[in-house]
Specification:
Oligomer: single chain
Strand order of the largest sheet: 3-2-1-4-15-16-17
Shape: globular
CATH class of the largest domain: Alpha Beta
Number of domains: 2
Order of helices and strands: EEEEEHHEHEEHEEHEHHEHEHHEHHEHEE
Strand content: 15-25%
Structural class: alpha/beta
Number of strands: 17
Bound molecules: guanine, fe (iii) ion
């Protein structure tokens, strides 16, 4: 069926859960989730008469939850996921990441790699994603074509790198800005659900001059921004040397006007008080990447602090710092590392609870896309239907308990049976 003509008004019947606050999840057994023109009209215990004529998608006995937003993932790194996890960030970039990303100059390689990435993302719990490509414009446009075809909603970035990079993965500063302007002009309006995002890799890879140009492009075209911030101690020391004028690493972006409610900064493991205040005041999103921070021995971000301050926080896999695309594993890891941080580092920051991880994966990150990540009335209807019947237990579980263990046991016997993005069903075949 042509996805544009697919009916977007229907009712899903099932065991429905969604966050109503970071700590609270509303659960309705045998409930009805009503979708009208791609948006939620709410969740009901009894189906209101006014919706009785809508088509019914009967998922009785299955869990129905909002889709997940992975707000920081590197598409070209998917090809070496699970490999080379034995180094810290800067050595890992030089040894594994940059050589892999250089291969995307070859469109045939990029085509094969991005087809696999897009296909696996389509079958995952992720309904929305914020994605890094490489510095290559043709390969990044190919990635955008592939992602558009999945039906998911994504932001995709052509990466900028004009210093401290290998000869086969570096740009001339003026050409980098020019290529970015050309790419933005090329892709603007081309897609229905795939959007450009300005993507300076991180301060060590981008000169001040190019950083200023990129801010200009973002402002002129009203585009969002993504980058990395305070992930690793050697990285932070290096930024201090490269930008001696900056008051903190975050200032090396803020100075150019690159922080704000349309900016995502990945990691923020070692943000100083000043940097935290900057992120909070500007409404910048923190992408929490718990698995990547563990695999690259980066550290544990103080997410409890960010949540207590009411900051914008979402979850992210950061593939290939993280090994796979599972947002279930990402949630479980977020809770686990918060417990280690509390036990080993700082007893003043209490561990996260599973409800908070679920909120970050759905509403926290979803809000970067607008009214996304909830089933409250008026939200775009992104939904996952989950069959948990193969996860065996003799116990009678509440709906919440079934969702809670799904976070931990998705890979054991969880099965994604349907997936909707803005009311449109995604092909999972
Ligand atoms: N900092 C700069 N580039 C990268 C990257 O590709 N992955 C991670 N985790 N951190 C980075
Ligand atoms: Fe990253």
């Amino acid at each position: 069926m042509d996805s544009k003509t697919e009916p977007k008004s229907f009712v899903i019947k099932g065991d429905i859960c969604y966050s109503t606050s970071p700590q609270e999840v509303s659960c309705t057994q045998n409930g009805y989730l009503v979708c009208v023109d791609g948006k939620s009209a709410g969740v009901f215990g009894e189906l209101p008469q006014s919706y009785a004529e809508l088509p019914l998608v009967d998922c009785t006995g299955q869990l129905v939850v909002p889709g997940m937003s992975d707000i920081h993932v590197h598409a070209p790194q998917y090809a070496f996921r699970g490999l080379g996890m034995d180094l810290e960030l800067l050595d890992w970039l030089n040894t594994h990441t940059f050589p892999e990303e250089a291969k995307y100059a070859d469109l045939a390689y990029a085509g094969d790699a991005y087809e696999i990435f897009a296909d696996d993302l389509r079958h995952s719990a992720t309904t929305r994603a914020v994605v890094f490509g490489t510095l290559h414009v043709p390969a990044t446009e190919l990635l955008m074509d592939d992602l558009e075809a999945t039906g998911l909603v994504t932001y995709v970035g052509k990466v900028n790198m004009d210093r401290n990079s290998p000869d086969n993965l570096v740009e001339d500063s003026a050409e980098s800005a020019e290529a970015t302007r050309g790419w933005v002009a090329d892709v603007t309006g081309r897609y229905e659900r795939t959007h450009p995002i300005i993507t300076p890799r991180f301060t060590p890879s981008v000169t001040d001059g190019l950083m200023a140009e990129l801010a200009d492009i973002a402002h002129q075209n009203d585009l969002p921004v993504q980058s990395h911030l305070s992930e690793n101690l050697s990285e932070i020391g290096w930024v201090k040397e490269l930008c001696p004028w900056s008051t903190c690493y975050g200032d090396a972006y803020d100075h150019f006007g690159l922080l704000g409610e349309k900016t995502i900064m990945a990691h923020c493991v070692y943000s100083t008080d000043e940097e935290v205040d900057l992120l909070r005041r500007t409404g910048t999103y923190v992408a929490h990447c718990p698995q990547s921070n563990a695999q690259l021995a980066s550290g544990i971000a103080p997410i409890r602090r960010y949540l207590d301050l009411g900051m914008n926080v979402g979850l992210a896999t950061d593939v290939a710092g993280g090994a796979d695309l599972s947002m279930w594993r990402c949630m479980a890891d977020a809770v686990a590392v918060s417990k280690l941080r509390w036990r080993l580092v700082d007893q003043s920051l209490s561990p996260l609870i599973t409800q908070e991880a679920f909120w970050m994966a759905t509403m926290g990150g979803g809000s970067f896309f607008g009214k996304v990540g909830s089933f409250a009335e008026g939200y775009e209807l992104d939904a996952l239907v989950l069959d948990d019947s193969a996860i065996r237990t003799p116990r009678d579980l509440t709906v919440w308990e079934r969702l809670e263990r799904y976070v931990y046991l998705a890979e054991e016997g969880g099965y994604l049976t349907r997936k909707f993005v803005a009311g449109r069903q995604i092909d999972l075949d």
